[in-house]
Amino acid sequence: MKTIVKSMLTTIVLALFISTVLSAQDNTNNKTAVVKIKTSAVCSSCKIRIEKNLAYEKGVTDVVLDIATKIVTVTYKPAKTNPDKLRHAISKIGYDADNVLADPVAYGKLPKCCKKDAEPHQ
Ligand SMILES: [Cu+2]
Questions:
Q1: Domain chopping of the chain, boundaries
Q2: Quick check: 74 and 82 in contact, CB under 8 A?
């Protein structure tokens, strides 16, 4: 009986040890961070435009824009990019990103319904 308990404990300790090692490796290789950036997105095509373009940005692993709050939540690899680069990338798509104003050329190319002064719509 004692041997069974002992071997079970050994197995548990070993499993814990292995999972710790694996998660530590995960942290160094695939470490991600999340940043929330306020944009000037107006409608669902803005959402699609920003999500699609930002997804191609180096180091970006996930992009979700909430139209109601205009906040884009970006998951990224800190080793490859940073919030400031992401804000400038959003500016280059034609939208304000926190304190970074939209790139005038990119903004000029946006459809009328996606301009900052457009009436709220879907
Ligand atoms: Cu739009």
A1: 1-30, 33-114
A2: no
